[in-house]
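User: Second chain of the day. Same drill as before.
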Amino acid sequence: MFIDLKNEEEKFVNSPKIINSAYNSTFREKQFENKKILVTGGVGSIGSEIVRQLLKQNPSVVRILDIDETRLFEIQSELKNYKSLRFLIGDVRDKDRLKRAIEDIDIIFHAAALKHVPSCEYNPFEAVKTNVIGTQNLIEAAMDEEVEKMINISTDKVANPIGTMGATKLLTEKLVMGAEYYKGDRKTVFSSVRFGNVIGTRGSVIPLFKTQIKRDEILTITDPNMTRFVMSIKQAVNLIFKASEVAEGGEIFIFKMPSLKISDLADVMVKESSKKIRIETTGIRPGEKMYESLMTREEAEHALETDDMFIILPQIDKSYKSKFPSYKGIIQTKQMEYTSNNVKLMSKDEIRKMLLEESLL
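Assistant: Same format as last time:
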């Protein structure tokens, strides 16, 4: 089945009854029932929440692969009542270990990565070995085992990257997209999900601010005009699951999310603490941007959109966009680009409400 996107766009824009696509609803209940699933980086903030949400759907088995022995022990203690969990110490750089971890697996959620901008900047080849080579190892193992789907978790740092972390994660997306073209008759579907900043995750700015406030230290921001996209961990996992359900192969899914000024976030957190904390500007760190992009102008030319998502289609073959029969109720995007300084910024009241809802104040 082939879709004339121009005609489809006119039909959906002019029709008062638009069919709701899977993107505009929550992921299907029991989507992962009786499935065998591997989560790489499964003890991190995103990976561990993926695991917790998966366990609610009665999967056959969930394997967590991570190199953090301490966090594996902690997660094992937290989730000790779930008999379907398996805890594997291993590194995505080790292809033989991956082959063992992937045996009989149906779905892979790939969250393992070196993600901190400064550490990747100072240790660039380590970032290459984990983010690039590690992902290629996973792709090849998934193909060999003919896994049903592999969902790669990416970042806004890939759009017009200026640092090592963004550059390596861009290559990761390209590897996942390219896998669709050389997998041959193998059944594995490869797609990526691209996030902004997930609030409250380990190593992110909110835990840093909370620590500085607790210790009565100077609260440090890089630049008062810096803006960032933000989303909750639950929203992030919801996007991952929705993507895994509807992915056809090679796409990049982007959740539409609000943006905020880092200085406004700092002001709200200081005010809520009722402490007299001084805020100091330190300057932008190596490899860091003033504004973040989730979708570039060039990518927008190959993108569709729904009420809550953009879907960037593979760009290797431009006719590829006509091969998505399950994409109903969506249109070609008119967005020129998607950056944290060209969307409406959250007010301080909205920031406060968000932090309260996520129990971060």
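Residues 1-26 have pLDDT under 50 and may be disordered.

User: Great, on to the next one.
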